[in-house]
Write a structure and sequence with these properties.
This protein has 247 residues and is α/β, with parallel strands linked by helices. It has one domain: NAD(P)-binding Rossmann-like Domain (Rossmann fold, 3-Layer(aba) Sandwich). It is built from eight helices and seven strands. Strands 3-2-1-4-5-6-7 form a seven-stranded parallel sheet, sandwiched between helices. Helix 1 packs across helix 8. The model has no long low-confidence stretch (mean pLDDT 95). Bound molecules: nicotinamide-adenine-dinucleotide (NAD).
Length: 247
């Protein structure tokens, strides 16, 4: 028996953390709109799962995200949960970073968190329902390497945006929090640790000496999204295997 109120939207829901968050929310009884760039990867990920609605949208495109939210409301109902997982990483030293790379990383990671948050929150407010938003930021918001400058700047923005969204949406009963992971064994995380500077800086000093599995981040997200975190808003939960604790 599904609870009609348990509707979630997960951006980046075709891969990595996003796909793992979709799986974890399904286990909690949610029906989920998995929003991603679309194509075969998105369809293949959820072809056998009737509780998942696949929605194609670029998170940097206001009209596309608005259409995705409208489709979700029409097909599943008003979302009570939004998880912003869509993100990209491009390695380069800021001395060499191109405008194209800087703009792309900031657009997807930062504006691509703002747009779904605003548009899903508006749907919640319009329907008079409370809800919860969880953003995936990164330990890169707290420290930089020689190669992750644009990404670090974008994730610093996501961390600040998380607090600002929590302030803006509080009067409507919408909580907004973030999860700050260290390296995770996803396509993006494996690409990042292929960079020896990053691997040495991050994995070399992790207390747990391994990359996280995506489900270990998804469980933190599900906690923050759910009623057990009902008094938590504007917070960032670090799930990094001890990277930031260890100098
Ligand atoms: N993997 C790591 O080590 C790690 C560490 C800390 C934070 N993060 C963050 O976690 C989030 C998920 O990363 P992941 O490792 O699962 O990556 P991933 O590459 O496995 O998945 C990212 C998903 O986002 C989608 N996406 C990218 N650009 C998009 C756009 N413009 N519109 C819609 N969808 C788009 C991709 O198609 C993909 O399905 C990202 O925000 C990332 O920065 C990852």
């Amino acid at each position: 028996m599904t609870d009609p109120q348990k509707v979630a939207v997960v951006t980046g829901g075709a891969s990595g953390i996003g796909a793992s968050v979709v799986t974890a929310l399904l286990a909690e009884g949610y029906r989920v709109a998995a929003l991603d760039l679309g194509g075969a990867a998105l369809e293949a990920a959820w072809a056998d799962e009737p509780r998942v609605l696949t929605v194609t949208a670029n998170v940097t495109d206001r009209q596309a995200v608005a259409a995705a939210v409208a489709t979700t409301v029409e097909r599943l109902g008003v979302p009570r949960v939004l998880v912003n997982c869509a993100g990209i990483y491009r390695a380069s030293n800021l001395l060499d970073t191109t405008d194209e790379d800087f703009d792309a990383v900031v657009a997807v990671n930062l504006k691509g968190t703002f747009l779904p948050s605003q548009l899903v929150a508006r749907a919640m407010v319009e329907a008079g329902v409370a809800g919860s938003i969880v953003n995936i930021t990164s330990v890169a918001a707290s420290e930089a390497t020689e190669e992750n400058g644009a990404y670090a700047a974008s994730k610093g923005g996501v961390t600040a945006l998380t607090r600002a969204l929590a302030v803006s949406f509080a009067e409507h009963g919408i909580r907004v929090n973030g999860v700050q992971p260290g390296p995770i064994a996803t396509p993006q995380g494996l690409a990042a640790v292929a960079d020896p500077v990053y691997a040495e800086r991050m994995v070399g000093r992790m207390l747990l000496k391994r990359l996280a599995e995506p489900h270990e981040i998804a469980s933190a997200v599900v906690f923050l999204a759910g009623e057990g975190a009902g008094f938590i808003t504007g917070s960032i939960l670090t799930a990094d295997g001890g990277v930031l604790a260890h100098r």
